[in-house]
Hints:
The protein is of the alpha+beta class and 99 residues long. 59% of the residues lie in helices and 14% in strands. A 3-stranded antiparallel beta sheet has the order 1-3-2. The longest helix has 14 residues, at 8-21. The radius of gyration is 15 Å and the shape is globular. It starts with 7 loop residues before the first helix and ends with a helix. The model has no long low-confidence stretch (mean pLDDT 90).
Amino acid sequence: METQELSVVKLERMANRLRAIAHPMRIAIMDMLTLEPKLSVTEIYLRLDIEQASASHHLNIMKNHGVLRSKREGKKIYYSLVSNALSDIIRCLNNCKDC
Protein backbone atom coordinates (compact mmCIF):
# COMPACT_ATOMS: atom_id res chain seq x y z
CA MET A 1 0.00 0.00 0.00
CA GLU A 2 1.40 3.36 -1.04
CA THR A 3 1.30 6.16 1.51
CA GLN A 4 0.60 9.72 0.49
CA GLU A 5 2.66 12.53 1.85
CA LEU A 6 0.39 14.92 3.72
CA SER A 7 1.34 18.56 3.46
CA VAL A 8 0.66 21.04 6.22
CA VAL A 9 -1.83 22.79 3.93
CA LYS A 10 -3.74 19.57 3.28
CA LEU A 11 -3.75 18.66 6.98
CA GLU A 12 -5.09 22.13 7.85
CA ARG A 13 -7.84 21.80 5.22
CA MET A 14 -8.81 18.39 6.58
CA ALA A 15 -8.91 19.68 10.17
CA ASN A 16 -11.07 22.63 9.09
CA ARG A 17 -13.57 20.29 7.42
CA LEU A 18 -13.77 18.12 10.52
CA ARG A 19 -14.33 21.22 12.68
CA ALA A 20 -17.03 22.36 10.25
CA ILE A 21 -19.04 19.18 10.86
CA ALA A 22 -18.32 18.91 14.60
CA HIS A 23 -21.70 20.21 15.75
CA PRO A 24 -24.87 18.22 16.47
CA MET A 25 -27.02 20.26 14.04
CA ARG A 26 -24.46 19.94 11.26
CA ILE A 27 -24.23 16.20 11.80
CA ALA A 28 -28.04 16.05 11.63
CA ILE A 29 -28.00 18.04 8.37
CA MET A 30 -25.40 15.70 6.89
CA ASP A 31 -27.43 12.70 8.00
CA MET A 32 -30.53 14.12 6.28
CA LEU A 33 -28.56 14.83 3.10
CA THR A 34 -27.24 11.29 3.10
CA LEU A 35 -30.81 9.99 2.97
CA GLU A 36 -32.11 12.69 0.60
CA PRO A 37 -29.32 14.03 -1.59
CA LYS A 38 -30.95 17.43 -2.24
CA LEU A 39 -32.85 19.54 0.30
CA SER A 40 -33.88 23.19 0.44
CA VAL A 41 -33.11 25.45 3.38
CA THR A 42 -36.82 25.40 4.24
CA GLU A 43 -36.98 21.60 4.28
CA ILE A 44 -33.91 21.48 6.51
CA TYR A 45 -35.00 23.99 9.14
CA LEU A 46 -38.55 22.64 9.32
CA ARG A 47 -37.36 19.05 9.78
CA LEU A 48 -34.85 20.07 12.44
CA ASP A 49 -37.36 22.40 14.13
CA ILE A 50 -34.87 25.28 14.27
CA GLU A 51 -34.95 28.89 13.10
CA GLN A 52 -34.22 29.60 9.44
CA ALA A 53 -31.30 31.85 10.42
CA SER A 54 -29.75 29.06 12.47
CA ALA A 55 -30.08 26.56 9.61
CA SER A 56 -28.57 29.06 7.17
CA HIS A 57 -25.66 29.69 9.55
CA HIS A 58 -24.83 25.97 9.79
CA LEU A 59 -25.26 25.46 6.04
CA ASN A 60 -22.94 28.37 5.25
CA ILE A 61 -20.22 27.04 7.55
CA MET A 62 -20.35 23.64 5.87
CA LYS A 63 -20.49 25.17 2.39
CA ASN A 64 -17.53 27.47 3.09
CA HIS A 65 -15.45 24.49 4.23
CA GLY A 66 -16.21 22.36 1.18
CA VAL A 67 -18.64 19.95 2.86
CA LEU A 68 -21.78 21.10 1.01
CA ARG A 69 -22.62 22.64 -2.34
CA SER A 70 -25.62 24.80 -3.10
CA LYS A 71 -27.68 25.34 -6.21
CA ARG A 72 -30.36 27.95 -6.77
CA GLU A 73 -33.53 26.79 -8.48
CA GLY A 74 -35.94 29.67 -8.83
CA LYS A 75 -36.46 31.21 -5.40
CA LYS A 76 -35.11 28.19 -3.50
CA ILE A 77 -31.56 27.17 -2.70
CA TYR A 78 -30.91 23.45 -2.49
CA TYR A 79 -28.02 21.89 -0.63
CA SER A 80 -26.25 18.60 -1.22
CA LEU A 81 -23.12 16.88 0.04
CA VAL A 82 -19.93 17.40 -1.93
CA SER A 83 -18.87 13.87 -1.02
CA ASN A 84 -20.28 11.00 0.99
CA ALA A 85 -16.89 10.42 2.62
CA LEU A 86 -17.69 12.62 5.62
CA SER A 87 -21.07 10.92 5.97
CA ASP A 88 -19.21 7.61 6.08
CA ILE A 89 -17.30 8.94 9.10
CA ILE A 90 -20.59 9.85 10.81
CA ARG A 91 -22.02 6.39 10.05
CA CYS A 92 -18.86 4.79 11.41
CA LEU A 93 -19.21 6.74 14.66
CA ASN A 94 -22.89 5.75 14.88
CA ASN A 95 -21.90 2.10 14.56
CA CYS A 96 -19.19 2.34 17.22
CA LYS A 97 -20.36 0.15 20.09
CA ASP A 98 -17.97 1.68 22.64
CA CYS A 99 -19.02 5.30 22.01
